[in-house]
């Protein structure tokens, strides 16, 4: 049995963790099935068997893995069809692309999404979410959140990806690969929380739609939160 | 015979084009010798045989190539030792890393280096340099140049590369590869013009020194311009 422990909101069908989405996309790419095990931020005991406290955790018939990049590498080693990271230089460069694209989108998306995460999570998770994030950010959630500023930073950040995607359909070239899923997971974080800081008619938007439609064609529609976020928050 | 047509200043030994430096580093990586053919911006007739007007141009025993990335691909195909871009996913990702790292450093370096390029080029090149760059930038050289602002933008731009290089010695992992030379060429543009917007004790600085020392160990010291640039220009 293959189980994916992944973060959910108060609604167990609302999945929004970017790192968990990376793994879902990777499993779908490999053509592998899995059972979803949705957990809340504070359900740490349910993943204690992994020896650490963060999702995603993959339990593949007794083999336990955590961390999205480590899970990609494991999947490539165990299931050799359709490489995600690949080997040697290809894998090294996938990790570098992940680092650079992560740097471009993570802070902008966090500024947009913090008020939305707050709304969708189980009330029992709110104290953990606030204290862990405020410690990491060095400021209050309210001081950090800035949806409008985040949208501007997002557009600036993805500018070189936008140019790249005008010239080929995927980050990894003519077909989607590990680099595509590592970034698309980040964008699904926004998508599932009802935000979309990219334009439908941008190259990035068209790329995201290609990834989304391929996934949904085999795994059904992805649930999005219906959120009312006050403007100028 | 292998000839590299490359940009020089009024001093034919002062080479500063980032794209030409990429090719020098790539040839050295492959263990190949070459004859330098330094030309000025306006010596277009000397490379007319390549069917276009930009350096670098490589004439490899009658095979003519231009554009640094195309030259890397040619070198990998013709001389299979020590791949630069590699094949398949590795090559695709090297091009994406090039695009992203180029975006991070090019404008900041241009803001720092415009006054320096102006000083070192042959006076006969100045009209061409001004008109071609002002057309591309959409403003005067003086309005665009901003060495202090450029240094700040450079440090912000290379932040994710700095983190990456704290964890492994090269962009391409444990040994230098095409991604390293594509970025190092950009930094040699600054270095040869007497500028260094990175700290010696940064991870990026240590990486640059490794690349530089390996090159100089086999090809001798790289000439740097002695430039006096007025502060607050």
TrEMBL record, chains A, B:
Matches recorded under InterPro entries: Glutathione-S-Trfase_C_sf, Glutathione_S-Trfase_N, GST_Omega/HSP26, GST_UstS-like_C, Thioredoxin-like_sf
Task: Show the SUPFAM superfamilies listed in the entry.
Answer: GST C-terminal domain-like (SSF47616), Thioredoxin-like (SSF52833)
**One cellular-component annotation, GO:** cytoplasm
Query: What Pfam families does the entry give?
Result: GST_C_7, GST_N_3
Q: Where is the GST N-terminal domain?
A: 7-83
The protein's GO terms of the molecular function aspect are: transferase activity
Write out the entry's keywords from A to Z. Transferase
Q: What is this protein called?
A: Glutathione S-transferase
Q: Which organism does this record belong to?
A: Ectopseudomonas alcaliphila
């Amino acid at each position: 049995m293959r189980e994916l422990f992944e973060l959910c909101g108060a609604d167990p069908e609302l999945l929004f963790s970017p790192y968990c989405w990376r793994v879902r996309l990777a499993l779908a790419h490999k053509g592998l099935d899995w059972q979803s095990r949705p957990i809340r931020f504070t359900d740490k005991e349910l993943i204690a068997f992994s020896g650490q406290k963060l999702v995603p955790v993959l339990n593949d018939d007794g083999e336990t893995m955590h961390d999205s990049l480590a899970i990609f590498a494991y999947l490539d080693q165990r299931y050799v069809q359709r490489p995600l990271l690949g080997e040697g230089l290809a894998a090294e460069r996938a990790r570098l692309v992940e680092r650079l694209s992560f740097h471009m989108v993570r802070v902008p998306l966090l500024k947009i999404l913090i008020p939305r995460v707050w709304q969708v999570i189980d009330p029992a998770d709110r104290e953990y979410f606030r204290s862990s994030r405020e410690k990491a950010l060095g400021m209050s959630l309210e001081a950090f959140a800035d949806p409008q500023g985040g949208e501007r930073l997002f557009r600036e950040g993805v500018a070189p990806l936008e140019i790249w995607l005008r010239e080929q359909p995927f980050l990894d070239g003519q077909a989607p690969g590990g680099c595509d899923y590592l970034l698309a997971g980040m964008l699904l974080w926004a998508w599932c929380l009802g935000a979309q800081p990219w334009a439908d008619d941008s190259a990035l938007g068209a790329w995201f739609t290609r990834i989304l439609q391929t996934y949904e064609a085999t795994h059904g529609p992805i649930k999005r939160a219906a959120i009312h976020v006050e403007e100028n928050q």
